[in-house]
Amino acid sequence: MSQQNSNPPAPAGVARLQFMQAAWAWVGVAPFLVFALMFLILPTLYLIIGGFQDPDGNFTLQNIFDLFQPSIMSAYWISIKVSGASAIVGALIGFGLAYAVVLGGLPGWIRPTLMTFSGVASNFAGLPLAFAFLATLGRTGLVTVILVKFFGFNIYATGFNLLSFWGLTLTYLYFQIPLMVLILTPALDGLKREWREASEILGASVFQYWVHVAFPILWPSILGCTLLLFANAFGAIATAYALTGSSLNIITILLYAQIRGDVLHNPNLGYALALGMIFITGCTNGAYIWLRGRSERWLR
């Protein structure tokens, strides 16, 4: 009796068991697939189709040609500059913070504290973030008033304006820097101690180690994270709209105006604007995925 129970199941039983396991796996992933279909794939297809239609539903390329109007090209260019500035500055500061907590020899409690804050701050955006910066660095904000009252220094007298290019870039840095810390920390953790020990044995200095060993390995991760920060800022609208309104002509605000129809109302041109944004963010995300793959091969 014990020998019969110890016998392996028949091939048909094995196949049935594998089928049931695969079926339950698909049941587990089904909510994600439905969510992606409803809120990512179908809306994207709707935008692509609408970008090549006129208001009557006929095929046209006029919406694509209209993207090259000076006002629209200017909006794209301002968005690219804001996204690029916040991505580069955020990458530099985020790299410094990640290096400090991973390799800087700081007290152990600083790393979990920074990672917890970064996890929260990287998702803090929209109206709350805009209000926080207005209450802090606005013309009557707390920091502005303190600087004037106790130090006699008015930041707005120097030409600074929160409702401007650099003001929006500064606001974006609040979630860009933590995102860089979260993404780059695992890459710094992946630097093997043996590599540094080998370089020291061979007589390399700290500078030579970073130039010839660490940076070539980390460079795909750093560049990929910077591209991801660019895409993250390029698609942001809630923070920019709540902070600057229509005073800064970035592409997301122009898209919002086209579809909402307060002054402008050409939904199909809005779909074409969104199609252009999808193309730009798709290229940056594709480059990020490729660079991440190269980095993971080194750090594996």
UniProtKB/TrEMBL annotation:
Keywords: Cell membrane, Membrane, Transmembrane, Transmembrane helix, Transport. Residues 76-290 form the ABC transmembrane type-1 domain. InterPro entries: MetI-like, MetI-like_sf. The keyword Cell membrane applies. The chain crosses the membrane at residues 23-49, 61-80, 87-110, 130-151, 163-187, 207-231, 238-259, 271-291. Coiled coil: none annotated. SUPFAM superfamilies: MetI-like (SSF161098). It is a multi-pass membrane protein. It is found in: Cell membrane. Belongs to the binding-protein-dependent transport system permease family. CysTW subfamily. PANTHER family: INNER MEMBRANE ABC TRANSPORTER PERMEASE PROTEIN YDCU-RELATED (PTHR42929:SF1), INNER MEMBRANE ABC TRANSPORTER PERMEASE PROTEIN YDCU-RELATED-RELATED (PTHR42929). This is ABC transporter permease subunit. It comes from Dongia rigui. The lineage of its organism: Bacteria, Pseudomonadati, Pseudomonadota, Alphaproteobacteria, Rhodospirillales.
